[in-house]
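Hey L., structure's done. Input below.
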Amino acid sequence: MSLLAGIDPVTGEVLGSVEERHRSREFVDFLKMLDAHYDSTLQIHIVLDNYSAYTSKETRAYLETVLNRFEFVFTSTHGS
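Output:
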């Protein structure tokens, strides 16, 4: 099982999903959920660890379809 979740620091709202697996496909689906939830004029900032799904070919391909929509900040290796 995998939990993908985000907390909006302005409103305190929690957005998340529980998935059977933790692959690029599930991460991209989570990004799509965030994209649909927030106004298209806003940039979404996400703090992530260094899991490979976050930089996979599938994730990068999706990010190219929503240029400048997401800003990723990665924690230090072994820092989380």
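The CA atoms of residues 1 and 20 lie 5 Å apart. The chain has two helices and four strands.

-- N.
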